[in-house]
Design brief:
The structure holds two protein chains of two kinds. Chain A contains ten helices and no strands. By secondary structure, chain A is mainly α. Chain A has one domain: MetI-like (MetI-like fold). Chain A is elongated, with a radius of gyration of 20 Å. Chain B is mainly α. Chain B has a single domain, classed as MetI-like fold (Orthogonal Bundle). The chains are: A mainly alpha, B mainly alpha. Chains A and B meet through α3, α4, α7, α8 and α9 of A and α3, α4, α7, α8 and α9 of B.
């Protein structure tokens, strides 16, 4: 607790290029960029695979691989291979690790829609694409959002570890603190990341409330 | 970059078992211990807690919420926080990973017990099973597939998460990543990733095998 007071009470931690506000913004920036790219890849792909049923194996393999692949190893290898110094190589592992949760849950969501509902939509004269967007997507939305939430948390977490390979953000406090044995910084940084992760979690709860149709929620 | 090959086999041969604490085989052993202890502890705690959540339904909501929060915390964050309590020891990795395992296993135990059909439970009662024996001989065996599915997720995640512990000096094979990074040397990194994925696949395979052995009836039903 003394460490926390020391970390947050120190005025030097609140300003300058390695102050908390700057680091927080950096963290949000990298995370948002990686998250958006991952979502743009995985949501359409998951919907397509779920709708057509083709390529389901890809989803299973991606899900298992993402769980088994060590974050730190992937970061270190990609950044060494792509060259140290720029931000872009660090974003690659962030994106790679964020795609599977979105892909799997979007796929499961679309796949898991009641067959009767799907048939009813076709029976009412909707075409394939209309069925996907007007019927399957709203019903699958809770699971799609779950996938997005897991991916967002994954990105925030990986971005923290990525401080080790030179990325800015809140992870810097932890990594630099460990290097210099300034444990107050380590714990302070950890508390900041924890708060960010919880805020992301909470934001998705609110989003879920806002966009999921009440009818769908009742069925759950 | 340079023309450094991805894998130098002679480095692996020299460092597989050089007797020191940084030998690949020593790190592997360390990694296995640190990855499996959390799953083991997690299972030991999750079984009674899961049972309690089924017995007293009001317990489940707060437990699930707490586990959800835990699960959303990055592993490095939990390691860092425990660093201030347990120092640079194995516990600093094993305790947080136990919480992650719990976050997967408690819902698995609860869902598993909920998956037991009422007809099965009633048949057991009608056959004269007392509650304790019914739980051990009927409900838990029927719940095995769901619990083991959770156990597979927990085990594979645990194996890969241990490596992040390398940042606080307790990461098993994860130390190879730090080593490779500091020397700009690909081989240890590739070896680390390959061994961790291999370990995960192996552990997953063993759990699938365990499920087949523990639920012989599901195979009989399929062949019948």
């Amino acid at each position: 607790m003394n460490w926390l007071a020391g970390f947050f009470g120190d005025a030097a931690h609140w300003s300058g290029p390695d102050g908390i506000p700057v680091r927080l913004l950096e963290h949000l920036e990298f995370s948002a960029a990686a998250f958006l790219v991952a979502a743009l890849i995985a949501v359409p792909l998951g919907m397509l695979i779920g709708h057509t049923g083709r390529g389901a194996l890809l989803v299973v393999v991606a899900a298992n691989a993402a769980r088994a692949l060590p974050t730190l190893g992937l970061l270190v290898l990609v950044v060494l291979l792509a060259g140290v110094g720029t931000v872009l190589p660090v974003l690659i592992p962030l994106i790679v690790l964020a795609v599977p949760p979105i892909l799997v849950n979007t796929y499961e969501g679309v796949r898991g829609v009641d067959a009767d509902l799907r048939d009813a939509a076709y029976g009412m004269g909707l075409r394939g694409r209309q069925v996907l967007f007007r019927t399957l997507t709203p019903v699958a939305l809770p699971l799609i959002l779950l996938g997005l939430r897991l991916a967002a948390i994954q990105v925030v977490s990986t971005a923290t570890v990525a401080a080790f390979v030179g990325l800015g953000g809140l992870g810097r406090f932890i990594i630099d603190g460990l290097a210099t044995k300034t444990y107050a910084d380590v714990v302070g940084g950890a508390v900041l990341v924890a708060a960010l992760a919880l805020a992301v979690q909470f934001a998705f709860v609110l989003l879920d409330r806002a966009v999921v149709s009440p009818g769908v929620r009742q069925v759950r | 970059m340079t023309d450094e090959p991805l894998v130098r086999w002679d480095w692996i041969a020299r460092n597989w078992a050089n007797g020191g604490p940084t030998a690949i085989s020593a790190l592997l052993e360390n990694h296995v211990v640190m990855a499996f202890l959390p799953v083991l502890f997690g299972l030991v705690v999750a079984l009674p807690l899961g049972l309690a959540c089924v017995r007293w339904r009001w317990l489940y909501q707060p437990t699930a919420a707490l586990m959800n929060v835990t699960y959303s915390l990055p592993s490095l964050v939990l390691f860092s926080i425990f660093l201030s309590i347990t120092g640079l020891t194995r516990s600093t990795v094993v305790i947080p990973l136990t919480f992650f395992a719990l976050a997967v296993l408690i819902p698995a135990v609860v869902d598993g017990l909920a998956s037991v059909p009422d007809s099965v439970r009633q048949s057991a009662v009608a056959m004269g099973f007392r509650p304790a024996r019914r739980l051990l001989r009927v409900e838990l065996p029927v719940a095995v597939p769901v619990v083991l599915a959770g156990l597979r997720v927990a085990t594979v995640s645990s194996i890969s998460l241990v490596s992040v512990g390398a940042l606080i000096g307790q990461g098993g094979l994860g130390n190879l990543f730090i080593d490779g990074w500091q020397r700009q040397f690909y081989t240890p990194i590739v070896v680390g990733i390959a061994l961790i994925v291999l370990l995960a696949v192996l552990a997953d395979g063993l759990l699938v095998l365990a499920q087949r052995l523990l639920t012989p009836w599901s195979r009989a039903r399929r062949t019948a």
